[in-house]
Amino acid sequence: MTITEDLRKRIAPHLPDSFRGIIAKQTGYSESMVSKVLNEGQPNVKIVAALIELAKKTKEENEKEQERLRRLADQL
């Protein structure tokens, strides 16, 4: 499966609207352009790169939160 197919079929339907807004701000594109690229799977390097960076940042934040919760649970 190509990145274009992944965007259209597996990723875009699950993205919250706030992510589309963040990607739009990072890339300088309108939210409707970001949605069009994601929903139709049109290749756009700038938008895909912003999506990847956002995913990395979100993953790191989730990992930090999980570690914080583990430490709290250990204290109980």
How many whole angstroms does the radius of gyration measure? 15 Å
Oligomer: single chain
- H/I helix tally: 4
Cα(first) to Cα(last) distance is 46 Å
- Roughly how much helix do the residues carry, as a percent range? over 70%
Structural class: mainly alpha
Largest sheet, in brief, is: none
Unreliable runs: none
Query: Which term fits the overall shape?
Result: elongated
Q: How are the SSEs placed, and which strands pair?
A:
Elements (H helix, E strand, L loop, with lengths): L2 H9 L5 H11 L3 H10 L4 H31 L1
Helix pairs in contact: 1-3, 2-3, 2-4
Overview of the structural elements:
The chain has 76 residues and is mostly helical. The chain has one domain (3-75). Helix content is 80%, strand content 0%. It has four helices and no strands. It has helices spanning 3-11, 17-27, 31-40, 45-75. The chain is elongated, with a radius of gyration of 15 Å. The termini are far apart. The mean pLDDT is 83.
Attribute tags:
mainly alpha, 4 helices, 76 residues
Task: Provide a concise account of the structure shown.
This protein is 80% helix and 0% strand. The protein contains 4 helices and no strands.
